[in-house]
Amino acid sequence: MPTTAPAALAFADVTASDSALRRFLHGLPGVDAVGLEARAASLGTRSIKTTSKAYAIDLAISMIDLTTLEGADTPGKVRALAAKAVRPDPTDRTTPTTAAVCVYPDMVATAKAAVAGSGVKVASVATAFPAGRAALPVKLADTADAIAAGADEIDMVIDRGAFLAGHYLKVYEQISAIKAECGDRARLKVIFETGELSTYDNIRRASWLGMMAGADFIKTSTGKVAVNATPANTLLMLEAVRDFRAQTGVQIGVKPAGGIRNTKEAIKFLVLVNETVGEDWLDNHWFRFGASSLLNDLLMQRQKLATGRYSGPDYVTVD
Questions:
Q1: Labelling 182: which of 53, 103, 281, 309 has CA 20 to 30 A away?
Q2: What amino acid positions are annotated as catalytic residues?
Q3: How far apart are CA 154 and CA 175, in angstroms?
Q4: Does domain 20-315 sit in CATH 2.60.200.30?
Q5: Across the chain, which distance is largest between two alpha carbons, in Å?
Q6: How far apart are alpha carbons 212 and 318 in whole angstroms?
């Protein structure tokens, strides 16, 4: 299996200056928007039958970063969410656990205690989430606090203003610095907020920038803007990690987040993964869903397959 170590040495010349980095990123092949959207839509029409659907539902559950990122979050709410991550369906112990619980840094210790011994990871947003508009020392301190509290994964946001202004080296250096702060203690997910990047070309450039700087995952969105994960932008990012591995031997994960609310949509994303990058990514070490409401629909569909009856939302817990 390819290493997850940063591929920075392979791009040392490219990242030596802002102008060199700009030439590289703007030299990437342009995105055929019509072709990209048509392929994403075509893959989304594929259907899978009962046995495969049961497998896909369990796989999707195991890939969820069960998330609460609200100003009103309390320790009690985080403990309840963590309990659901560990045992999504208390009536059926064969239900897989979710991949992680994702919370604000001040809730990491609470979540960590609640999932202890379960294998469920604790992810923490950091770096002035969701805007990413803070000085680097503040971002580093935010990251360090989360890791000190027990975070296994850090979901950082890039400074979209700097990126859109063409200050690519600044964004690269900030990602690299956060990755260095994570070290071997936490995996790093880099959030682009694709809905604010305006073009598919920018999403491709951001994907390569994040991977070159040391991201372990590239992630679409914060879930805090109007446009979040879509099949097209996720397909584009999957193509980027595929091409990056072909060039460097380094495998990078992908996390669509925000707006994926039901089983049908989740399965469409799994088809995208299978058809674009293959089975190597069909594992929660390499693919995640950033979601909250998605889990309930997956559980209801799972119960329907098992019993033949649709139980409805009253039979699952409210997050």
A1: 281
A2: 155, 219, 255
A3: 11
A4: no
A5: 61
A6: 40
